[in-house]
């Protein structure tokens, strides 16, 4: 990644995670994430899906497992940017619809090549990587190892709530 990429600090209830965003290869996802961060949207959201060996997901639900509604449109999926879903990378979460990402993102805690772009089809499009953890993997690893259970219709939810307390963008 080029040296002039934005850096984001996630202060969580379990520690800090520092992420370098890739504005060159994923400009849409990077700008989207920065907009949400600067608006204070992520503060008070939780890590609502944690699967050890796979990923930790956050950025759209509150502690009572309610969706935090976004006022921003869905973005174009940049999974064809050549970046891979490797351990420590940050990617946009989405539905089965290719261009449906909004605020939710995940950190890969393993190498997840099955999430990489394979073809320009709904099944092969993949998940857009747009950054990487540069400090705080010990926090990511602590989160990935927490006990999880079910909460309503949601599975793999941490038993103890893990909250994003503050997000700082350093451009």
Describe the structure.
- It is a single chain.
- With 171 residues, the chain is mainly beta.
- The chain has one domain (7-170): Cyclophilin-like (Cyclophilin), CATH 2.40.100.10.
- The protein contains 2 helices and 10 strands; from the N terminus they run E-E-H-E-E-E-E-E-H-E-E-E.
- It has helices at residues 27-38, 137-144; strands at residues 7-12, 15-21, 47-51, 55-58, 89-92, 105-108, 129-135, 148-151, 154-158, 164-170.
- The strands form 2 sheets. It has an 8-stranded antiparallel beta sheet. The chain has a two-stranded antiparallel sheet with strand order 8-9.
- The longest helix has 12 residues, at 27-38.
- The model has no long low-confidence stretch (mean pLDDT 96).
Quote the average pLDDT: 96
Assembly type of the chains comes to single chain
Which shape, going by the Cα principal axes? globular
For the record, the CATH class is Mainly Beta
Give the CATH architecture: Beta Barrel
The CATH homologous superfamily is called Cyclophilin-like
Number of beta strands: 10
Q: Helical residue percent?
A: 10-25%
Order of secondary-structure elements: EEHEEEEEHEEE
Sequence of strands across the biggest β-sheet? 3-4-6-5-7-2-1-10
Low-confidence stretches: none
**N- to C-terminal separation?**
14 Å
Number of domains: 1
Radius of gyration: 15 Å
Q: How many H/I helical runs?
A: 2
């Amino acid at each position: 990644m080029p040296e002039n990429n934005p850096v984001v600090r996630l202060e969580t209830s379990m520690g800090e995670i520092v992420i370098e965003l890739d504005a060159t290869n994923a400009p849409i996802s990077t700008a989207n994430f920065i907009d949400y961060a600067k608006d204070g949207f992520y503060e008070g959201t939780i890590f609502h899906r944690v699967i050890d060996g796979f990923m930790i997901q956050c950025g759209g639900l509150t502690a009572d497992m309610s969706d935090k509604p976004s006022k921003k449109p869905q973005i174009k999926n940049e999974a064809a940017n050549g970046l891979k879903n490797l351990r420590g990378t940050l990617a946009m979460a989405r539905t089965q619809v290719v261009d449906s990402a909004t605020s939710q993102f995940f950190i890969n805690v393993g190498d997840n090549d099955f999430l990489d772009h394979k073809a320009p089809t709904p099944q092969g499009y993949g998940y857009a990587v747009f950054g990487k953890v540069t400090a705080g993997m010990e926090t990511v690893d602590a989160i990935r190892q927490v006990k999880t259970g079910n909460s309503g219709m949601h599975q793999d939810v941490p038993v103890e709530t893990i909250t994003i307390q503050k997000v700082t963008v350093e451009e």
